[in-house]
Write a structure and sequence with these properties.
This protein has about 180 residues and is an all-alpha fold. It folds into two domains: about 35 residues, no CATH class; about 130 residues, no CATH class. Helices cover about 40% and strands about 0% of the residues.
C-alpha cells in the first residue's frame, strides 16, 4: 500500500487504534466525511473493492496529473479503480464496476480477465500490477480477486433480479 484514504480508515477499531471516527472526534480532519463509509456489497465484493482502491486506485483514476507531468498511468483512459465516498449506494455505483466490465474484467471468468492476469502472474512483456512497492505476487490479493471475479456473474444477476423485484413492488404490483 502506497498510502491511505478516509475509506481505508472507516472501519470499526479498538479504542487505541486509529480510525476515521477517532480522527473526526478529535477534530483532526479539515472536512470530515459522512459518518457511514461502509463499502457496498457482500464481504467478497468489499474486500475486492478495498484492494483495488488501495493498491490500484492511486494510478488508475481520472484525476491523475496532466499528460505533460509525471504519471504512471494515462488519465485519458476510462479505467477507474478508485473509490469515492459519494458513490457508495451499491457496488454497481462504483467506478470499478462502471469502468472495468468488458474491458479488464470478464464477470465469472477470472482467467479471461486482464486485471486478474496482471495481478496474479509475472508477465514477460508487461508489468505485473501493481508495479510500485511490490516485489512478489500477493497471494491474498490473488484469492480475493479470483473469488470476486468468479462470483460476479451470479452477484450481478441477483442485483438485477432484486432491482426488478423492487421496481415491481414499488409500483404496487406483486410477483408470484
Amino acid at each position: 500500500m502506497l498510502g491511505f484514504s478516509a475509506i481505508q480508515l472507516a472501519h470499526p477499531a479498538d479504542a487505541d487504534e486509529m480510525s476515521l471516527e477517532r480522527l473526526a472526534r478529535e477534530g483532526r480532519l479539515t472536512r470530515p466525511p459522512p459518518a457511514d463509509l461502509a463499502l457496498p456489497g457482500d464481504d467478497v465484493t468489499r474486500r475486492a473493492l478495498g484492494y483495488l482502491h488501495a493498491s490500484c486506485g492511486h494510478c488508475h483514476n481520472p484525476r491523475r496529473p496532466p499528460p505533460t507531468g509525471l504519471r504512471c498511468y494515462d488519465p485519458q483512459k476510462p479505467l477507474d479503480l478508485s473509490l469515492s465516498v459519494d458513490r457508495f449506494g451499491s457496488p454497481q455505483d462504483t467506478p470499478v464496476y462502471r469502468t472495468t466490465f468488458g474491458r479488464v474484467v470478464a464477470p465469472g471468468r477470472p482467467d479471461d480477465s486482464p486485471l486478474f492476469r496482471r495481478v496474479s502472474r509475472d508477465a514477460l512483456f508487461r508489468a505485473r500490477m501493481p508495479p510500485l512497492a511490490t516485489e512478489a505476487i500477493d497471494p491474498a490479493a490473488v484469492t480475493v480477486l479470483r473469488d470476486w471475479i468468479a462470483g460476479l456473474a451470479a452477484r450481478l444477476a441477483r442485483a438485477v433480479e432484486e432491482s426488478l423485484h423492487f421496481g415491481v413492488r414499488a409500483r404496487g404490483c406483486s410477483i408470484d
